[in-house]
């Protein structure tokens, strides 16, 4: 397993009126982040907030190419990102202990925070298809070019770690600097991770290892 | 944080403890216990709140020291309101150090502010002031800023410095307005009233008058020789001769001041200072000894001359002599002074604050209760005492809820 320091490329925020960032997603153009009572859409090039949706947004956020998924209390809601309408909802596998959400290949992947678990869930029924065990509190999950990554935040320390989605084995760890929490994780599909910064109210960009430095 | 914890913390921060409880009522994991504790505190059930926070502290355990320290700070705040100045308050310092080391400036500052309140409460003004000075005020949560200024005002008032006290109360009022929390505004009002209320009685040649703090300050700054029965000292201008540990000497000084510019008879001095019924030769000998001691003690400010009947006070530079008394003279003024904060105290906390034995405090409380000045509720260890007067000390319970679980 390789340990390396996480390289932070950019930091957005803190945003006015935002007490905490609880989930992050990327729709190809905009970075969506959950701040309790709202979903915010950020242009990663300019750093400007472009959209606001009034939906409860307590934890993980994901995007399936058409719809946004958002954890609110004990459910995962499917949301139209144009109108903010809730299309449907399924029970969250952690029954409210959920933190972190990702979409990949027809499944939702849901982190269960203090239980250190990651569930693969059927997005139609909410049925749990598979469960992985992590060593640390899970605060965000994402897929990037076939690699499965999740964020951890425990005892004031955070890292991004790549695990084997079959066995849960840890393959690489990017240590976040001290005092830098990860409360949500998403990739841009290439060389960047977007990380929620928890109660710092920020969103940070971390370079994916093995990709060229960029700003 | 997970989704329900986020939702519950949001409800709590919005002042909706029932909405918060609804979300975590059935959960027993550490962050849920902590949030339930904070919600119960907001609902006023401090005993249950404390149990829950203790359970949360245990559940977080040594592997999550920061979250644990936050729970300890919350528990200390409850203990402070309950005037339980024992173990929970001792944990506060450790918790603050831990939070500082982990960069949690907000909760570290809140812990420091609580400790300053504790120090003011037990009369350690220098330490309280040092604690306030060392605080990272920018990091202080807005809800504890008003309390911070009320502590500063309390220190200034105890030191009889009216202008700084007034300025601090103005700051407290501004901070309270910014939070929009009505109970904070009420507390600031109470402090204003305390500042304007009679703080002492002055007796001298011109009779007796009640003085607010500002006038007490003016009297102390004048060139009069003052026998100060509020603090048991003899003073003139900047020179203060404390006689707290020498009650007989102070009693003699007071009788002499009452008689000034005349002299005080030996019999009067004996009766007032020693409680002697009649004056025999051994009493006279003892009086001579004690007068000799008083003469040495107050030499910088006044002389003592023997007269036919007894003794007379002769101020060196002062133009007049006055006696400063508490607004109401009482045998147990120091107990009443602590209870004047309007909170319910245990007798052991009073004993700790006053540095006397529990028995001594209990006797004082019984006497005061007989006079209708204090009342008690609860039994045994849970017994608490309150004064029947208005308070003047921050009492709010404003735990920084959203940050407890990080």
TrEMBL record, chain A:
<dbReference type="Pfam" id="PF21959">
    <property type="entry name" value="DUF6923"/>
</dbReference>
<protein>
    <submittedName>
        <fullName>Glutamine cyclotransferase</fullName>
    </submittedName>
</protein>
<feature type="domain" description="DUF6923">
    <location>
        <begin position="94"/>
        <end position="178"/>
    </location>
</feature>
<dbReference type="InterPro" id="IPR015943">
    <property type="entry name" value="WD40/YVTN_repeat-like_dom_sf"/>
</dbReference>
<dbReference type="InterPro" id="IPR054215">
    <property type="entry name" value="DUF6923"/>
</dbReference>
TrEMBL record, chain B:
<protein>
    <submittedName>
        <fullName>HTH domain-containing protein</fullName>
    </submittedName>
</protein>
<dbReference type="InterPro" id="IPR036388">
    <property type="entry name" value="WH-like_DNA-bd_sf"/>
</dbReference>
<dbReference type="InterPro" id="IPR036390">
    <property type="entry name" value="WH_DNA-bd_sf"/>
</dbReference>
């Amino acid at each position: 397993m390789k340990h390396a320091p996480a390289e932070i490329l950019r930091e957005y925020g803190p945003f006015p009126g935002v007490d905490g960032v609880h989930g992050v997603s990327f729709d190809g153009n905009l970075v969506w982040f959950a701040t309790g009572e709202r979903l915010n859409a950020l242009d990663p090039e300019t750093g400007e907030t472009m959209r606001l949706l009034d939906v409860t947004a307590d934890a993980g956020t994901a995007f399936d190419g058409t719809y946004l998924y958002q954890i609110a209390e004990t459910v995962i809601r499917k949301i139209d990102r144009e109108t903010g309408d809730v299309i449907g909802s399924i029970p969250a596998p952690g029954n409210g202990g959920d933190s972190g959400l990702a979409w990949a290949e027809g499944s939702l992947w849901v982190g269960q925070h203090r239980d250190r678990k990651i569930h693969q869930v059927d997005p139609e029924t909410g049925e749990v298809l598979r469960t992985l065990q992590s060593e640390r509190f899970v605060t965000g999950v994402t897929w990037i070019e076939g690699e499965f990554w999740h964020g951890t935040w425990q005892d004031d320390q955070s890292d991004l770690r790549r695990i084997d989605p079959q066995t849960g084995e840890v393959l690489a760890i990017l240590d976040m600097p001290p005092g830098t929490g990860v409360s949500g994780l998403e990739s841009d599909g290439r060389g960047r991770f977007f990380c929620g910064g928890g109660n710092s109210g920020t969103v940070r960009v971390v370079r994916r290892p093995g990709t060229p430095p960029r700003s | 944080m997970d989704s329900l914890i986020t939702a519950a913390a949001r409800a709590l921060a919005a002042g909706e403890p029932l909405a918060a409880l609804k979300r975590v009522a059935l959960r027993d994991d550490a962050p849920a216990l902590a949030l339930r504790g904070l919600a119960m505190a907001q609902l006023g059930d401090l005993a249950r709140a404390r149990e829950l926070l203790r359970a949360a502290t245990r559940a977080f355990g040594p592997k999550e020291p920061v979250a644990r320290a936050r729970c300890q700070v919350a528990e200390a705040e409850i203990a402070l309101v309950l005037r339980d100045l024992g173990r929970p308050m001792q944990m506060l310092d450790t918790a603050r150090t831990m939070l500082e080391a982990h960069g949690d400036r907000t909760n570290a500052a809140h812990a420091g502010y609580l400790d300053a309140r504790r120090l003011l409460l037990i009369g350690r003004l220098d330490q309280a002031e040092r604690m306030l000075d060392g605080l990272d005020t920018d990091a202080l949560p807005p809800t504890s800023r008003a309390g911070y200024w009320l502590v500063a005002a309390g220190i200034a008032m105890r030191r009889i410095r009216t202008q700084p006290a007034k300025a601090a109360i103005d700051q407290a009022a501004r901070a309270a307005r910014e939070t929009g929390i009505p109970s904070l505004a009420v507390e600031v009002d109470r402090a204003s009233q305390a500042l304007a209320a009679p703080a002492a009685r002055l007796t001298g040649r011109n009779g007796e008058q009640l003085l607010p703090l500002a006038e007490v300050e003016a009297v102390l700054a004048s060139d009069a020789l003052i026998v100060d029965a509020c603090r048991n000292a003899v003073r003139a201008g900047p020179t203060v001769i404390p006689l707290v540990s020498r009650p007989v000497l102070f009693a003699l000084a007071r009788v002499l001041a009452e008689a000034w510019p005349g002299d005080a008879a030996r019999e009067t001095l004996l009766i007032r200072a020693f409680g002697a019924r009649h004056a025999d030769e051994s009493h006279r000998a003892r009086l001579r000894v004690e007068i000799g001691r008083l003469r040495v003690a107050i030499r910088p400010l006044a002389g003592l001359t023997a007269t036919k009947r007894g003794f007379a006070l002769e101020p060196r530079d002062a133009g007049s002599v006055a006696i400063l008394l508490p607004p109401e003279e009482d045998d147990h003024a120091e107990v009443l002074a602590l209870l004047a904060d309007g909170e319910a105290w245990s007798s052991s906390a009073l004993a700790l604050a006053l540095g006397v034995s529990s028995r001594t405090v209990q006797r004082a409380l019984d006497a005061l209760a007989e006079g209708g000045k204090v009342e008690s509720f609860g039994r045994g260890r849970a017994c608490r005492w309150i004064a029947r007067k208005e308070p003047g000390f921050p009492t709010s319970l404003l735990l920084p809820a959203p940050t407890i679980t990080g």
